[in-house]
Amino acid sequence: MIERRTVFRAAIAAGSVGALAACSGRTAGTAEVDPAQVPPKAKITAEPAVGAKDVSVLAPVTLKVEEGKFTEVSVTNPEGEPVAGHLDGDKRTWTSSEPLGYGSTYTYTAEADGDDGKVAEFTGSFDTINPATLVRATLNPVDNAEVGVAMPISVKFNEPVADRAAAQRALVVETSTEVEGAWAWLSDRQVDWRPKEYWPANTDVKVTAKLYGVHYGGGAYGKADVTTQFRIGRNQVVKIHTPDHVMRVYRDGRESASYPCSNGKDADPNLNTPNGTVIVMTREPTSIFDNERYGYTDVKKKWCCRISNHGEYIHENEENRANIGKNNTSHGCVNLFEVDAKAYFDSALIGDPVEITGSKADFPLTSDVMDWLLDWQTWTSKSAL
Q: Which catalytic residues are annotated (predicted)?
């Protein structure tokens, strides 16, 4: 009896399996799916998306595939030239590695082998931003220049910049010696960087202005990146206390030369050699001076170092020889004997500081280079960040 019940249960079990098998079969009237019609598992996506408009030229193009690996990726510009890029290690992500062009249509195509063995394909295009205005920037000092310890870094734009913070974020200063400094906007077209104190002598400086693609506001964008590398020279500082009638030159903190001079007329603040720290802006072997208000034109002088756009120079003036070292009789310039003017001229670098004290008037804040006329707190308050 036990044996017969066992067999019976096995038969029931076998019958149940058969019934289940019958229930799992194709229902009459349902068509079989052709495996060739099943779409590939691999899914390819792109950023920017297909058909995107006004795409930033700085945003990387990225193509990704899920459940597969790329066998081919191509992004091309309107001329059919490829955009540089690279696949990651597992061949599931491609990323561009160069900026795009303004106002252009880019096309991408890609193929990937899916994990199911099927090939997935992808095509599409997008358009980049077309700026209303392209703004050009220049950078000073220029490459390979050797400059004095008060030389500022200056970025000038040919159009006003509305979003100053965006522009400033694109500016990087690298130095061979640690230097504390800051950017300050001197106008809506100019931003300067200067150290808190004079540069350490012999510092190497690299400036990178990654301005291409930066939106300055109002549809204005940066036209191009600009860079420069320059060097700070020896430490030389000129000090003039106008009542003393002496121009002193210091190298590395020690007086290295002194020259008798005649400065601007003491009695008239409009003719003073003004107080303040300025820099040597140009070195001109000869210059022509004109000031119709004071009755002279086409006056030629030698060994001229311009120290402001207000009209002040350090230069020879043998015509004023009788007053050099004795009286202040110039119209604001620092007059030297010719031999002394030549000696100083030969020693000077663009960016050397000239510190002037003792006058009734101060330098106005109208010169192209007025960076050192501002105290540090005022300077840092002009940053956009």
A: 315, 333
Spell out the long-range contacts of 256-260 with Cβ–Cβ below 8 A and sequence spacing 24 or more.
257/343, 257/344, 257/347, 259/336, 259/337, 259/340, 259/343, 259/344, 260/324, 260/325, 260/326, 260/336, 260/337, 260/340
Architecture of the domain made up of 236-370: Beta Barrel (2.40)
Entry pTM: 0.86
For the chain, 385 residues long, the average pLDDT of each consecutive 10-residue run is 32 35 43 70 97 97 98 97 97 98 98 95 98 98 98 98 98 98 98 98 98 98 98 98 98 98 95 97 93 76 95 96 98 97 98 98 91 98 98
Beta bridge partners of 299: 289
Q: What is the DSSP letter of 81?
A: P
Q: For residues 318 and 341, give the distance between their C-alpha atoms in angstroms, rounded to a whole number.
A: 10
Catalytic site includes residue 23 = no
Topology agreement, domain 39-127 and domain 133-233: yes
Measured from the Cβ of residue 32, the count of other Cβ atoms closer than 10 Å reads 6
Q: Is 333 a catalytic residue?
A: yes
Q: Looking at 261, 304, 305, 333, which residue is catalytic?
A: 333
Q: Specify whether the CB–CB gap between 133 and 157 falls below 8 A.
A: no
CATH match of 133-233 with 3.20.20.60: no
Active-site residue, selected from the candidate residues 261, 305, 315, 331: 315
Q: How much is the pLDDT for 3?
A: 36
